[in-house]
Amino acid sequence: MSNNNSINVPQHIAIIMDGNGRWAMEQGKERTYGHRAGVETVRRITAECVRMGVKYLTLYTFSTENWNRPSDEVATLMGLVLSSLEDEIFMKHNVRFRVIGDMNRLPEDVQQKLRETEEHTVKNDAMTMVVALSYSSRWEITNAVKEIVQEVHEKGKMPQVTEEFISQHLQTNFMPDPDLMIRTGGELRISNYLLWQIAYSELYFCDTYWPDFREENLHMAIESYNQRQRRYGKTEEQVENGKL
Question: What is the largest CA-CA distance in the chain?
């Protein structure tokens, strides 16, 4: 997929990076070995997304449910977050870094590094990489409701509640909803990821484990996306007549 002129490149791709642990175990390795390999895939896919003209790449890195994993695996994942943020890919590829999730649950050194990376890359504008860390969609929506209730209490009046109003209180309020959501690893579920935001996203599932996910796999997902008609509840005729 070298010629981007003939394809419609999604402006926002969200990925559930699944299969690291199973990939490692099938090779007789510890699960943490798969997570380390997965970091290399992040570097490759990030670079390719920038090359293709994707504007937002959101990666499901660590869910709120993942805190229930064995402590040594959680510790390794936190260490990988720190080490991967040292990578020069952000500056090399002009990528801005942002994070969504419950930061208060993260170790202080991880929180500090996340803030520093966000500040360091704030002027980069080729693409924004968003890492969903200690994140779940139900947590995000619950947190948004708490904020709205607090605002009502402080202002003493009920605002007009619209979809846009709710979206503004979500952590993703700085970017458009995903056009394409990809899940690797063969599972056919959303796993509490961007539930509000993917209401009209195109979904793509593949059996490839994340450490084995390559540029050609990304191209296949985008080619599948291009074969679909996004109707947003309208008929095919309305879409073809420009009434979307």
Answer: 60
- pLDDT tens string 11-31: 999 999 999 999 999 999 999
Taking the CB of residue 7, how many other CB atoms lie within 10 A of it?
Answer: 15
Tokens 């409701």: give the residue.
145
- How far does the chain reach from its first CA to its final CA, in angstroms? 28
Please compute Rg for the chain using Cα positions: 19
Q: Which of 144, 196, 132 is nearest to 170 (CA)?
A: 144
Q: Where are the beta strands (DSSP E) in the chain?
A: 12-16, 56-63, 95-100, 127-135, 180-183, 202-205
Which of 18, 20, 177, 179 is the catalytic position?
A: 18
Q: How confident is the model at residue 146 (pLDDT cuts 50, 70, 90)?
A: very high
Q: Strand, helix or coil at 49? A: helix
Catalytic annotation present for 192? no
The residue type of 34 is: G
212 is catalytic: no
Cβ atoms of 211 and 185 within 8 Å: the answer is no
**Average pLDDT estimate for 164-171:** 96
Where does the pLDDT of residue 90 fall: very low under 50, low under 70, confident under 90, or very high at 90 and above?
very high
pTM of the model: 0.90
Q: Which of 46, 4, 16 is nearest to 178 (CA)?
A: 16
Find the catalytic residue in 66, 124, 143, 226.
Answer: 66
